[in-house]
Structure formats: structure tokens, C-alpha cells
Task: inverse folding
């Protein structure tokens, strides 16, 4: 069953095309990641889904409700935690959740129990009666999340959920999101963290300049790219023309060249899956290229291989290396 | 209005009152500002204004209605600022993304809070000036009219301020506009000097200022035991201005702000 369906979404701010014919869908009980750098259209799309912005064209359906036709009903099915961690720092954690409970019209008798449940679940009981002003970044993020979950939404939308969190807090957040998914909540999360998307998402939509560059499960996207990523770096004293010579060494290799980040490698190449999945398949090409580089006295510093990551997939899809 | 609408309005109003309780400096400064103005003006002008005002009316009697109005006006005109902070901090988005029965509850909660705080501040000034010997001579009907005038001023300027808050993107833009509006509206009014002592050109300008339109009826019910809607306020270009003219003007101003703020807010809250 589909919980979210975005069809040919278009949004412009003046001359800037924020969304351009964006379409995708999310199944109930899954985690869908919108992956892309800042300015790729993720936040605009999320704001349109939660009815903070309106699309110029296209449509969005949440739990079978057309957002443009009945935004109020759609909002009842959605929980939203934006980038800003919009909590009221004057209130205590408990007061803030009581406030949110009133906003989502929980029954007066249900409120104390639900607030208590959320505080316990998000590990905020100890700090519940302290003003949020003194909360750490992780606690604020958890409180924001608790507030978004107060009315048990079918679709939970999180914009950059782990931004600014330390490793421990991030891991705790991931565990919680996985728990929510297991309970049947559908999650849509926008992130520019490839590792987060890989670890959490069942499906990923890669966005670039307001368009969907690619989409699919992380596994499929990676395997479609190739079996191994071969990367090569030249010595610092490499001369003009050495880059071209290095690229020429890969000309006979089945697969495709990838855009590289200048600080990470000089050349990167996705080896076609048809070459086989075993490490030996990648290694044999590395040996061959290293031998050729030696013959041509090319100042090759190192060569390495790794399994394709979502970062590689993104680079291949949008034609530029991600940071 | 549905039960849900009142529930969400109540909880948002509660939040504003918690803010006032936890940050009392805002309430206290709002209270002290008119007290300081009153004290300074009374000290500086009490003697020199005695001749102008004639016997039976002390300068403190004269400026008390002005101070009450100033309090209501000042608080109402700043009503939108917290909303603007909410907007800058992303909190307004939380409210707008919540399954509210009606987003007008955001505006109503803020208006209720401002109205309550303003009336509380006015009550403190009223008690303080009474203890200092300022008489209220207008009777129960006069008190009711005075209260209605304060409510009209509070609602009119609160509506204006909330609409402005949704028009601006940053709080400093709004604060600049509020500052720009405050001084001329106070000094181009009859808050601190009688209307008939102003130059004629200025008098006409002062008479269309909603602050003056509110002060004059309030001053009349404060200082006259025999006030009526026909009580003369001043002579101006269209003849004699009476109390009902001022009240009518104030109602018109409120109708205008209600229309304009509704227009802006309907668009912004949609």
C-alpha cells in the first residue's frame, strides 16, 4: 500500500526551478530517503508535502488524500520535524509535549499518559521538567521527534534528522527510526548524509537541481552501478597531461568513469558487474593498469578498490562528485 | 467553532502566558514605560500646563487617559513581534504543519494574550493613578465606554501588528516600522497636550490619528461627570468635533484594520 505518492511536482521561486517534474512513491512501513546536496530541492519537496508550500504543478497524495484538495486532512496523517528543531526553549520538555498534544487535539484524559509515554520512549524523562533551553542538540532533536509523533502519524517526515548530532546521538536516533519503521510508520527523510541513507533507507530518491536523478533501493542502485569502484591517485609531481594518460589506461576496462572529488582521487571508475563480483575481478584490472602505468612511466601513487557506495551512485547519476 | 479549534487556541494561549510568566521583564517593562512617561511629563509640564488646563483639572488627571491609551497602543502594536520570532526560529512552521482545525487559532491565541496583558497593565495604571488622587468622574457608563475604547484600540492595533508580522520576514524590519509608527502616533495625538492648544494645521492631522480618536472619549469619561456623546471635543475644519465623531472614527479605523489584517492573514495562513 502506498502512503506517499508524488506525481510530476513542479515548483518555481522566481527564476529558480526548485522542483522539476519530481515523481516517486513510498510504500507503507518503509523508509524513503531523499538524498542530495543543499539546494537540490529536498526541503522544498518536504515543505510541499506538509502543506507549508504549494506546488505550481503536479500532485501529492498522503494516505490516499490529495494534499492540494484537503490539506487539513493530509496534515492529520503527517508528522513533521523540520531542520530547525522547532521547539520552544522557554517551556520544559513536558510542557512542550503537552502543548503539542493540544495542537493535535488529543483527548484531555489521554494527554498525560501519552506525554509520559513519549518522554520515556525518547529517553527524556529525566530532563522532562527542565526548560528546553538547557537541552543538548540530541535532546532537542529527540523532543522535536517526540512532538511530531504525538498524534501517531502514518507518515513521519524528517528534514536532516541527524544534522549536528554526535556519533552516539546519531546512532540512537537511527535505532529509534528503525523501531518506528518496525511498528509500521512510514518515514520520509531528507538527508545529505550518504551513510545515513544507506544504513536506514529501503528506497532512495537521488535529487539534483530539483530533479530526480535516480531512484531505487540502495542495493539495486549500487549493483546497477557496478561491482567495484577502482580509484587511482597520481603523485603530487604529476605533470600536465598525466591525468589524460591515466584516464586512457581505463579505456579498455568495461564500465564507466565517475566524476571524482579532486581531494580524494585523480580518477575513479565503476567496473561493470559483468566482470564478476569477486575481489579478484577488481584486483586483476588494478594489476593490469599498474603494469601499464609502469611501462609508460606514469607517476601513479596508488590504486584502490571499494564496493560502490551511494556516494558513487550519486556522482554517476548527477555527473558530479558529492562532498 | 469546533471543539478542536478552542482546544488548539487554548493551548497556544497557555504557551504565551507561560512566556510572560517565565520572562516577566517584558510585562514589567511594558508596565513601567507609561509610568515613566507619565512621571516625566507630570514633573516637567505640571506647572506650565496648570494655566492651560484651568482649575479643577490637574495635569496628572489630564495625562492619565493618555497613559492608559499609550499602554494599550504600545502593547498592541508590538503584538506581532513574538510571532515573527516564532517564524524566524521555525516554530511557526511547526504550528502550520500541525493538524490544526483552523490556522486562525494562531492569531486568536496571540490576540487573547496581548489583550489580557494589556488590560492587566491598564488595571495597574488605573489603580496607581487612583491612589495618586486621579478621579474617575464618568460613572459606570463612562467606565464601560472607557473599557470599550481600550478594547477597540487593543484589537485594532493587534490586528494591524499581527498582519505586519506575517508581511515581514525579519523581526528587525518590523521593529523598525513599529518604532517609526510609535513616536508620531503618540506625539501627533492629544496624549500629552490639549487639542485646542495645537496649531490648526497640526490639529487637523492629530484629529485623524486613531490614538487621538481613542484618547478624547476616554478623557471625557475620565474628567466629566456630565459627559455625553454630544460632548464637544474641539473645533476643526469641518466644524465642531464631538465625542461620537471620535468614536465613529475609531470604529472605522477598527473596521479598516480588521479588513486589511483579515486579507493579509487569510492569504498567509492559507
Result:
Amino acid at each position: 500500500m502506498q502512503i506517499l505518492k508524488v506525481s510530476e511536482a513542479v515548483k518555481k521561486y522566481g527564476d529558480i526551478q526548485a522542483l522539476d517534474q519530481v515523481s516517486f512513491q513510498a510504500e507503507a512501513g518503509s523508509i524513503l530517503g531523499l538524498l542530495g546536496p543543499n539546494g537540490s530541492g529536498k526541503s522544498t519537496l518536504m515543505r510541499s508535502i506538509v502543506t507549508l508550500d504549494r506546488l505550481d504543478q503536479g500532485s501529492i497524495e498522503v494516505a490516499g488524500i490529495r494534499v492540494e484538495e484537503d490539506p487539513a486532512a493530509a496534515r492529520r496523517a503527517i508528522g513533521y520535524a523540520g531542520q530547525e528543531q522547532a521547539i520552544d526553549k522557554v517551556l520544559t520538555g513536558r510542557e512542550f509535549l503537552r502543548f503539542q498534544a493540544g495542537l493535535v487535539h488529543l483527548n484531555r484524559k489521554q494527554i498525560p499518559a501519552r506525554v509520559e509515554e513519549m518522554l520515556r520512549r525518547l529517553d527524556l524523562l529525566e530532563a522532562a521538567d527542565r526548560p528546553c533551553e538547557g537541552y543538548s542538540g540530541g535532546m532537542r532533536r529527540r523532543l522535536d521527534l517526540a512532538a511530531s509523533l504525538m498524534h501517531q502519524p502514518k507518515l513521519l517526515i524528517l528534514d536532516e534528522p541527524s544534522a549536528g548530532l554526535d556519533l552516539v546521538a546519531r546512532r540512537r536516533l537511527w535505532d529509534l527510526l528503525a523501531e518506528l519503521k518496525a511498528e509500521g510508520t512510514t518515514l520520509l527523510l531528507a538527508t545529505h548524509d550518504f551513510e545515513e541513507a544507506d544504513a536506514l533507507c529501503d528506497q532512495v530518491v537521488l535529487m539534483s537541481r530539483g530533479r530526480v536523478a535516480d531512484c531505487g533501493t540502495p542495493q539495486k542502485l549500487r549493483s546497477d552501478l557496478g561491482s567495484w569502484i577502482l580509484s587511482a591517485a597520481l603523485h603530487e609531481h604529476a605533470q600536465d597531461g598525466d591525468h589524460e594518460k591515466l584516464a586512457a589506461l581505463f579505456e579498455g576496462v568495461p564500465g564507466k568513469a565517475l566524476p571524482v572529488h579532486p581531494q580524494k582521487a585523480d580518477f575513479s571508475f565503476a567496473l561493470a558487474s559483468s566482470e564478476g563480483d569477486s575481489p579478484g575481478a577488481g584486483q586483476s584490472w588494478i594489476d593490469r593498469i599498474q603494469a601499464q602505468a609502469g611501462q609508460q612511466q606514469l607517476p601513479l601513487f596508488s590504486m584502490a578498490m571499494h564496493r560502490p557506495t551511494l556516494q558513487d551512485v550519486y556522482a554517476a547519476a548527477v555527473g558530479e562528485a558529492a562532498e | 467553532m469546533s471543539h478542536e479549534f478552542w482546544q488548539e487556541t487554548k493551548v497556544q494561549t497557555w504557551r504565551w502566558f507561560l512566556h510572560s510568566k517565565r520572562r516577566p521583564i517584558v510585562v514589567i517593562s511594558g508596565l513601567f514605560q507609561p509610568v515613566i512617561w507619565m512621571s516625566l511629563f507630570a514633573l516637567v509640564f505640571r506647572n506650565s500646563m496648570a494655566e492651560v488646563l484651568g482649575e479643577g483639572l490637574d495635569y496628572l488627571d489630564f495625562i492619565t487617559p493618555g497613559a492608559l491609551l499609550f499602554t494599550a497602543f504600545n502593547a498592541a502594536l508590538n503584538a506581532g513581534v513574538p510571532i515573527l520570532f516564532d517564524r524566524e526560529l521555525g516554530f511557526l512552521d511547526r504550528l502550520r504543519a500541525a493538524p490544526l482545525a483552523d490556522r486562525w487559532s494562531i492569531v486568536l491565541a496571540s490576540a487573547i494574550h496581548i489583550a489580557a496583558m494589556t488590560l492587566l497593565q491598564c488595571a495597574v495604571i488605573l489603580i496607581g493613578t487612583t491612589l495618586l488622587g486621579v478621579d474617575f468622574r464618568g460613572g459606570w457608563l463612562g467606565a464601560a465606554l472607557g473599557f470599550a475604547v481600550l478594547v477597540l484600540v487593543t484589537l485594532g492595533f493587534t490586528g494591524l501588528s499581527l498582519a505586519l508580522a506575517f508581511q515581514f520576514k525579519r523581526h528587525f524590519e518590523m521593529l523598525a516600522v513599529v518604532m517609526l509608527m510609535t513616536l508620531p502616533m503618540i506625539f501627533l495625538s492629544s496624549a500629552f497636550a490639549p487639542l485646542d492648544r495645537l496649531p490648526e494645521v497640526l490639529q487637523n492631522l492629530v484629529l485623524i490619528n486613531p490614538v487621538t480618536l481613542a484618547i478624547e472619549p476616554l478623557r471625557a469619561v475620565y474628567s466629566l461627570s456630565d459627559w455625553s456623546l454630544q460632548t464637544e471635543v474641539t473645533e476643526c475644519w469641518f466644524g465642531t468635533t464631538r465625542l461620537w465623531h471620535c468614536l465613529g472614527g475609531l470604529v472605522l479605523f477598527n473596521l479598516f484594520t480588521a479588513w486589511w489584517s483579515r486579507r493579509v492573514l487569510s492569504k498567509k495562513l492559507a
